[in-house]
Structures are given as structure tokens and as C-alpha cells.
């Protein structure tokens, strides 16, 4: 199936991007002690939130390029996207660097950790435009129907980080700042390669001079198209932070198990997001990837992921910890997630088709409604005899409600 062929490279790209940003850096700085690990965890989590900002632009660019290729010149929309990239990069990077220490203190009160996080932020937030640029280049490629090139450049970035991390962290004795610098340098090289390939790809298009200008209407269209996806991402990130606070009330072993379980579960949930992007690309390019088809594939992926996690829960937990209490919390979390993963898979996968067909606002409405139920329900159930299990049940209830509302809202005619 064409949708699955499009999704497979996206899946590899998403997995490698997650590994490059967090796991590789965390692995290499682990030799510097727990404070360094905590600092890198905080810094990379913050950068993950920044991704939600640029998604409004990159998603809109993918959809508009997909709609217009072969129909009208791509130069105006791509130039407009780059102007917005410069604006987004400035708005995030400058305040981030200037207020890096207060930002670090939002996550920890430990002075040593704050200092290390601030060091990481000085490098990583200064170079956030590079991260945004690579994301935009990937979005343009995807709009052109090419998901293989972003996968290859993501793999290149990983290889570079793996080589540069030990050199800069230990060889040049830069510590945590070396981890940030390694990621930035890897992204710079990757961006140079990706941008060169993109220029060659676009060089076939020779629009008349009238089409070489930046178009304000394109800017509005880009943001209007991409904002629902950005809102969805940011809402999920903020809800995840709130859930972490609720989980933490049940003790350190449960919180550690939750953190490990989420990392393990990423391997499965990235498949849902790969299907979402593939459906968005197909729909934007007129491929007819209906929301119903995406929904069925997402539900099937959710069932498969739930089955695999149940079978592999015990050995997977053992890879991350030898603490019996933490391992037990991880295994129970993964088993309870069976109720969550099936509706979540369907919801995420069908979102791409809705986004590309102009119905992203309805998806965002349903998502926010699900979270509005999930959080108070989580607080209520977790304070009952259900304990931490109540939190996992609330997650499943929120995902099921969001899916049901999305299916109901999308039956209504557009406009």
C-alpha cells in the first residue's frame, strides 16, 4: 500500500531523530554523573517543546507544497516559509539565550544542575534556527512526496552525533556543553547536505520573475494550515508535564517506571505519527488517503503495538533498570497502556488526512476536549483505591473520548 510505503521512511526518521536528540546525548554524559544526566534530560525536553512552535510552519509548508506541485509555482510559498522561519528562529532563540538561567530554574532548584542546563541552553538555543531550518527542509521534501531523503539525513545526523559526542564531551573536556555542541555541529552538516539536495531538486522549477516574491497570503495560509497540528503537539506536551506531576505523587519508583515506560513506548507510538505524516502527504498531493483508511491502519497499529509491549514488557524494563520496584512499575504501565494505545493510534493516524483536508481545527477541538476530561479524571481516580492505575485508565478514557469526538465532528460537512 502506498500509504505504508510513505510511512516507513518517516518511521525510521522519527525514531532516529528521537535517539539523536535525547538517548545518545544522555548515554554519553552518563559518565559525568547524575547531575549531568538530569541537565541533559531537562535541556532536550525543553527543545522538544520548541519543536511544537515550528510545527505550525513545517506542517503548513508540507501541505501547501503538496497541493501546489505541478499546479502552480512553488517558489512563492517556499520563500514565504523561509521568511517565517527567520522570524520563528529569532523569537525563540533570542529570549531563550537571554533568559536561559530563569528557564532552567523552572525545572530544578539544584544550583549545580541549573548551571549545567544553562551551559547547554547557551549552545542549543543559540542554534535553534539550525534545528528549525532542518525541520523546514524536511517538510518541503515531504510536500514533494519524498520521505526517503529526510530519513537518510536523520540517519546521517545520528552517525555524526555518535562520533562527535565522545570527542567533545571527553576529548576536549567540554562536558555537558560538548554534548550540545556535538548535536549542533551534526545538525549543521546535515542541514548543508539536505539543503544542497533540495536546491538541486527545486532547480527544475523556473518560475517567471513575477513569482519570485514573498506572498503575504501564502504566509497566512501556511500558518492557518499548520497551527492545529502545532496546537495539538503543544497540548500533548503540556498535558504530559501535568501527568508527570500527578505520577510523581505516587513515589520515585513509580515516576521512574513511568519515564522508562514512555521511552519504551515511543518505538510503537512513532508508527502512529509516521502514518499521520504519510496520510497528510498523500491527501495534500491528491492521493486520496481518506481519514477512514488512516483510522483503520492506526487502530491496527495500536493493537499490534499493545500486543508487542505486553509480550516484551519484562525484558524491556530489565534493559533500563535492575531495581525491582522500578521494573514492576514499568511493566504495569506498559500493560495498562493496551487500553490507551488502540484509540490513540487511530486518533493520531487519521489526523494527517484531516489536517491536509482543512479539518485540523476539528481534530484539535476533540484533542483538547479529551485532555479536559483526562486530567481531572486522573486526579480523581489516582486518589482513590485505584492508585496509580487510575492515571493509566484516565489516559485511555481521554484518548477514547478524543477519538469518538473526532469521528463525530469529521462527519459534518466542511465550511
In short:
Its main location: membrane. Multidrug efflux pump. This protein is mostly helical.
How would you describe this protein?
- With 415 residues, the chain is an all-alpha fold.
- The chain folds into two domains: 1-214, no CATH class; 227-415, no CATH class.
- Helices cover 84% and strands 0% of the residues.
- The chain is built from 15 helices and no strands.
- Helix 6 runs parallel beside helix 8.
- The two termini are 31 Å apart.
Which short descriptors sum up this protein?
2 domains; ion transport; mainly alpha; single chain; globular; transport; 415 residues
Oligomer: single chain
Count of DSSP H/I helices: 15
Return Rg in Å. Answer: 21 Å
Helical fraction equals: over 70%
Query: Which structural category fits the helices and strands?
Result: mainly alpha
Low-confidence stretches: none
Organism: Microtetraspora malaysiensis
Subcellular location: Cell membrane
Pfam family, one: MatE
Keywords: Antiport, Cell membrane, Ion transport, Membrane, Transmembrane, Transmembrane helix, Transport
